[in-house]
Amino acid sequence: MSKPLQAIRGMNDILPEQSPLWRYFETTVAQLLDCYGYRQIRMPIVEFTELFQRSIGEVTDIVEKEMYTFADRNGDSLTLRPEGTASCVRAVMEHGLAGGGQVQKLWYHGPMFRHERPQKGRYRQFHQFGVEAFNLPGPDVDAELIVLTWRLWKKLGISEHVTLELNSLGTSAARAVYREALVSYLNARHDQLDEDSQRRVLTNPLRVLDSKVPSTQTLLADAPQLDAYLDDESREHFVGLRARLDAAGVPYVINPRLVRGLDYYGKTVFEWVTDQLGAQGTVCAGGRYDGLVEQMGGRATPGVGFAMGVERLILMLETLGKIPEELSRQTDVYFCAFGETSELAALALAEQVRDALPGLRLQVNAGAGSFKSQFKKADKSGALYALILGEDELQAKTVAIKPLRADEPQQTVAWEALSKNLQVFFNHDSSLTN
Ligand code: ATP
Ligand code: MG
Questions:
Q1: 151-210: per-residue pLDDT in tens?
Q2: CB-based contact 257:210 (threshold 8 Å)
Q3: Which is the closest atom of ligand 1 to the Cα of 260?
Q4: Rounded to whole angstroms, how far apart are CA atoms 55 and 118?
Q5: Angle at 422 between CA 418 and CA 428, to 5 degrees
Q6: How much of the chain, in percent, has pLDDT values that exceed 70?
Q7: CA-CA distance, 130 to 289, in Å (whole number)?
Q8: 333: alpha, beta or left? (left if phi > 0; alpha if psi -120 to 50)
Q9: Which of 57, 78, 111, 170 has its CA 20 to 30 A from that of 87?
Q10: Domains in the chain with CATH codes
């Protein structure tokens, strides 16, 4: 017998039990972004490989070893998107969305693909919400992006468990001078570096700052620091950002070693980190990429953005028990009909109720079943009320409303009065107004 088919390692099904929490998270983020004036854009999941090579940078972890790249039938090299910024910038350029200096504030969400070692909080297909703003060069928009994520953490109830780390990378000219100083410092200590960092000194020296190897971390304690090399403009930008975060009451720590893994960042970079998820502690990361559009062949266009990892945030909500109470209940009313004729009547009645009370979550029992088994299902569904339609009710053209949770008496109402009666019960239930 052949082996049962399985999903690809690191690519997960999101099961019905998990979907309500995902939906809650997605709706919360989408509503918040709407309120801040950001508009949704949806890009394809597959792009030409060249897009990522040109935007993310050849000597980054993503492009060097994490991309799912394959040949299309006509020989084109295609890649499953490893992140969204490149595609978003491509779409903005292709459709002239930021032409003539017009401001564009966008968000997107969806699956991203990276060939990494699967572990808790790290998958090969994972999901991001991304936000990008174009043609806003000042620190005010950097601050807005951070402030809105801070509001999101508060809304989700996790703000006490995340820390904002902040740094400025300066302009590419400033970074080039710094890079030389760093390289000569590291070269003088070449033998003490871990193997990965030795390689990075040659390819992408700033990434050495990112190293998680303790001996390399120790070595870096006395290394030249980027902030000493910052140009005036970047310094001023950073001061402006910090003033705004202080004014908005968003706490942060400056992390002079925060460099981010992608080449396109300059000036502001930031990460929201948590100690709740072990090694996969970054839940949201971003920064400014004023040079990216130009690097991709367009006109100089300031840009800034971030992406948050949905799986990691969902894990946090689960770990911290921040799952809203109402998500546990997915049914309001469960309709039990007994006998074929009753079932037909129940179907018609249920449709009438759905007409009258859009938003009411009403399940009609499927198929026959004993009294006992139907009530078991009704109870399991989480419904607040069961409707009962048996022989007697059919004759009398009534239906019984049985409270399943509250200690209220069962009542019997005429078919015409069913919707009205249910409306009274659910009047204060937010599920009907959402
Ligand atoms: P990490 O350092 O954890 O590898 P990264 O710097 O590669 O993260 P970004 O490219 O900045 O990540 O992506 C933004 C966010 O997307 C991350 O902060 C994280 O929350 C999430 N993320 C990135 N890669 C993965 C993955 N393989 N699985 C799950 N979430 C991920
Ligand atoms: Mg990574």
A1: 999 999 999 999 999 999 998 888 889 999 999 999 999 999 999 899 989 988 998 998
A2: yes
A3: 6
A4: 25
A5: 160
A6: 97
A7: 14
A8: beta
A9: 170
A10: 19-171+231-320 (3.30.930.10), 331-427 (3.40.50.800)
pTM of whole model > 0.85? yes
Structure confidence by residue, pLDDT tens digits, 56-78: 888 788 998 999 999 999 999 99
How far is the centre of ligand 2, averaged over its atoms, from the C-alpha of 143 (Å)?
A: 24
How far apart, in whole angstroms, are the C-alpha atoms of residue 134 and residue 220?
Answer: 35
CA of 280 to the centre of ligand 2 (A): 9
Alpha carbon distance 271, 283 (integer Å): 8
Contact of 218 with 199, CB cutoff 8 Å: no
Structure tokens at 391: 């022989």
In sequence order, the β-bridge partners of residue 128 are 110, 309
Residue with tokens 């699956």: 111
CB atoms within 10 A of CB 323: 15
Which residues approach ligand 1 with their CB closer than 6 A? 83, 114, 116, 121-123, 126, 128, 261, 280, 282-285, 307, 309, 311-312
- Centre of ligand 1 to C-alpha 309, Å, is 6
